[in-house]
Design a protein that fits this description.
Blueprint lengths: L2 H28 L3 H30 L8 H32 L1
């Protein structure tokens, strides 16, 4: 397996890891374990950055004429990546809300 397929799986793997970590952060926040929640968010961000780097490399390759076909697998990978970005933003907001509730 080479090229776009391998890169797609790298995106799926890293984005999936990020999503799982973001959801785990909410579980920690529900228990008031904010340091652990923040650590999950940080680790999730690292996975998200890795997936984004792979995506950027694919975009640059396409711009340079290296790739011309778009596969269903790549579309699936993009879906995972975009969901992870949404989870990231949403979880950060949820964490702020939990902290605000604890302050009252």
């Amino acid at each position: 397996m080479e090229g776009i397929e391998l890169q797609s799986f790298k995106i799926i793997s890293n984005a999936g890891d990020a999503s799982a970590l973001f959801l785990k952060a909410i579980q920690f926040a529900e228990k008031g374990l904010y340091d652990e929640a923040e650590a999950c968010i940080e680790e999730g961000n690292n996975s998200l950055k890795e997936a984004h780097h792979v995506q950027t490399a694919l975009i640059q390759g396409e711009a340079n004429g290296e790739y011309s076909n778009v596969s269903l697998l790549l579309i699936h990978a993009q879906d995972h990546l975009m969901n992870a970005f949404v989870y990231c933003d949403l979880v950060k907001s949820v964490l702020k809300l939990y902290k605000r509730l604890d302050d009252k």
